[in-house]
Every structure is written in structure tokens, then in C-alpha cells.
Design a protein that fits this description.
There is one protein chain. The chain has 2 domains: 29-56 and 325-392, Aspartate Aminotransferase, domain 1; 63-294, 3-Layer(aba) Sandwich (Aspartate Aminotransferase, domain 2), CATH 3.40.640. The strands form 3 sheets. The protein has a 7-stranded mixed β-sheet with strand order 3-9-8-7-6-4-5, sandwiched between helices. Helices cover 45% and strands 16% of the residues. By secondary structure, the chain is an alpha/beta fold. The longest helix has 20 residues, at 296-315.
């Protein structure tokens, strides 16, 4: 460090932790795109087929969303200036919430600034130290942290294991019980057994919170998620969804009863103490939602790609099933995943290595996210590269 920039105590701590991450093969770096999000992107001067995005319907770069945002900028400006409870509420927020509620078949919907903020806000607002939360072992970090911040007793049940959950519900009583689960699990792409969870929660008088982040726009007759696909939308207490994946925009929402969303306005700290989403983002999301509702061909194209890729992976010996737009190729150790990701990049493919703590130890992987905007040729390029990777192993 120069005299102008003396080393601080915290710098030493950071350097030590970074060396540890490097030694374990877990150090990461940011890589800025030089193009809009899409099936093909430019990264560091390379043109790559993008299999690392959650842009499931190819809407993130759709000009119609951009046009909606641009028009809203002229009406509302860029920033909202305050939280919604102060002076950050706009007609754009209300219009989007009304459209989301109708789309989800719910009495009410409430916007949050991100899926992480929604899950943390919901769980910490609705549960307290006298309550018990039951969380799937592979839930997203936002649900895990929401459980922690709620100060409720948290009981983790084995992944998708309804029988184990029933035993735990009997063993751990509290003032209130709440089960929380992803609908589609973000790293494996498998689905929660929601019908069984609904029946179990009804039996025990427990509430059920479902995060539909990776199911909205992908599953269901209208794209309203796994709850819609299984016919249990009206039996789930609260559903969380994001606007930044299949809908192509940014932000998140919860869908439920008017009483619950009103309580969240009072109690969800991640909502109460955050500057509101820009109105332009709300208008872009509303346009994306309209496209999901009005153009089923987007979802049909996505599912053609999902089936194509699943069949190709099966022929390569991977245990793949067409459950969602997410596929994991498990490689084990972090360095193996990183090396595989680098190899695929030499073949023109962007497939990021996913390592602990995002996934459990020993399950580092390549995570493929499919899009309606991928062509059959893109899918074949990925399968050919995986075939070559296997030959070179």
C-alpha cells in the first residue's frame, strides 16, 4: 500500500479470506456484458451462446419492454425518491400490482425490489420467536436468511421429503407453523411436491409459502407457475414471484390475500425501508407480463428447447428430466466445474461453474438455463461440447 492509501485492518482480513477462497477454487470474478441480455452475448471480446441466464422467455432484451420503460421515464422520471409509504408510490406500481394479482388469481399483490427482499421481508414479517418455520434443505438463500431474520425456530427438512416433514411438524410445535419452499429449485431444476405439501399443511394447520421465482412464465397453462400447473393456487397461503427472470424486467412480488399484503406494508422491513422500484421498471414488467399472457408461443418454444436438451443429456448418460428450464451437470469438485466451464467457453458457450456455498460441497456443477430464444442449433452446440468434454475427461 502507498502512503496515500495505507493498509487498514479490514484490508488484511479481506486479503486473508480471498487467499482462502483462491486455495479452495472458490474465488469468483465479475464479467460485464457489452451487449443486451440474450441467447447470444458478447463478453470480454468473445461472442458466446448464453446458457447462464434466467431469461427464460427471451424478454430481457425485447424492445417492447424497452419502449415501455422509455415512455414511463418521460412521465415519471428516473428515481422514485422515497419508499412507497413516504412518497414513492406511483400509478405504475398500482397498475402492475393489479395485473399481477389478476394473473396469479390472487386477491392482492405487493411489489418488492428483488426476490431476495421479498423472501426476507415476508418471513421476518409473518413469523417471530414463538413460531416454527420449516424450510426445505435446498431452498434459496433468501428463504434461508428470511428464516434466520424472523427469529423463529427454524427446522430444516430433507429435500422434497414429505414424510420427514410430517414427522417434524408433529415434533416441533409453536404458536404458528409455516412451511416455506421453492417451487422450482434454482440449482437442480426439480420441483417441490406442492400437492402433498398443501395437504400436509392443511392437516397440521400450518401456512405454506411458495417461491415461484423459476416457475413464473415457465409452468402452468398461463405461465402462472407450479401452483397453477398443479391446480393448488387457491390453497397456497402466499406465493412469491420475480419480475427479473421470465418476465424480463426487475423486482419481485408476493401474491395472497389483501389482509396479508396490507400487513406486509406495515411489517416487511425490506419494503418499508427501501426506496421504491422506478416506475419505468414497473411499466417494463407490466409489458413483459402482458406478453406472457398474450403469447403462448414463447412458452411453447421454451418447452421445445427443454425437451430437446433433456433428451440429449439422457443420451450422454446424465439423469436429466424435462421439469423446468434449469439443468445441472454435476462434476463434483470446484476446480472440475471451473475447468469444464473454461472448456465450454473455448467452444463458444457461456455456462458458468456453480460452486459452494451456492450448492452443497461435492456437487459443483455446470448450470444450464434454457431460453425460448435459443435455437435448435444452440442446443446442439451445447450437447456437442458436453460430448467432447466427456471424451476428454
Amino acid at each position: 500500500m502507498s502512503a496515500a492509501h495505507p493498509e487498514r485492518v479490514i484490508d488484511g482480513w479481506a486479503e486473508e479470506e480471498l487467499r482462502t477462497l483462491q486455495a479452495r477454487g472458490l474465488r469468483r470474478e465479475l464479467e460485464p456484458l457489452s451487449t443486451p441480455q440474450g441467447p447470444v452475448v458478447q463478453l470480454g471480446g468473445e461472442t458466446l451462446i448464453n446458457f447462464s441466464s434466467n431469461d427464460y422467455l427471451g424478454l430481457a432484451g425485447d424492445p417492447r419492454l424497452g419502449q415501455a420503460a422509455t415512455a414511463a421515464l418521460s412521465r415519471h422520471g428516473v428515481g422514485t425518491g422515497a419508499s412507497r409509504l413516504v412518497v414513492g408510490d406511483t400509478l405504475a406500481h398500482r397498475a402492475l400490482e393489479a395485473k399481477l394479482a389478476a394473473f396469479m388469481g390472487a386477491e392482492s399483490a405487493l411489489l418488492f425490489n428483488a426476490g431476495y427482499a421479498a423472501n426476507v421481508g415476508v418471513l421476518s414479517a409473518l413469523a417471530g420467536k414463538e413460531d416454527v418455520l420449516f424450510s426445505d434443505a435446498l431452498n434459496h438463500a433468501s428463504l434461508i436468511d428470511g428464516c434466520r431474520l424472523s427469529r423463529a425456530k427454524t427446522v430444516v427438512y430433507p429435500h422434497r421429503d414429505v414424510d420427514a416433514l410430517e414427522r417434524l411438524l408433529r415434533a416441533h410445535r409453536g404458536r404458528r407453523q409455516m412451511v416455506c419452499t421453492d417451487a422450482v429449485f434454482s440449482m437442480d431444476g426439480d420441483r417441490a411436491p406442492l400437492r402433498e405439501l398443501v395437504a400436509l399443511c392443511r392437516q397440521h394447520g400450518a401456512a405454506l409459502v411458495v417461491d415461484e421465482a423459476h416457475a413464473i412464465g415457465v409452468l402452468g397453462d398461463r405461465g402462472a407457475g407450479l401452483c397453477e400447473a398443479l391446480g393448488v393456487s387457491g390453497e397456497v397461503d402466499l406465493r412469491v414471484g420475480t419480475l427479473g427472470k421470465a418476465l424480463g424486467a426487475f423486482g419481485a412480488f408476493v401474491a395472497g390475500s389483501r389482509a396479508v399484503t396490507e400487513l406486509l406494508v406495515h411489517r416487511a422491513r425490506s419494503l418499508v425501508f427501501s426506496t421504491a422500484l422506478p416506475a419505468a421498471v414497473c411499466e417494463a414488467a407490466r409489458t413483459g407480463l402482458g406478453l406472457v399472457e398474450d403469447d403462448p408461443s414463447l412458452r411453447a418454444a421454451l418447452w421445445r428447447n427443454i425437451r430437446h436438451f433433456a433428451e440429449g443429456l439422457q443420451k450422454l448418460g446424465h439423469p436429466a428430466t424435462a421439469q423446468s428450464a434449469i439443468f445441472a451437470v454435476i462434476l463434483g469438485e470446484p476446480r472440475a466445474a471451473v475447468e469444464a466451464s473454461r472448456f465450454l467457453r473455448t467452444r463458444g458457450l457461456l455456462v458458468k461453474a456453480i460452486r459452494p456455498p451456492t450448492v452443497p460441497e461435492g456437487t459443483s456443477r455446470l448450470r444450464f438455463g434454457l431460453s425460448a430464444a435459443h435455437t435448435p442449433e444452440h442446443i446442439e452446440r451445447a450437447l456437442d461440447a458436453l460430448r467432447e468434454l466427456a471424451r476428454n475427461a
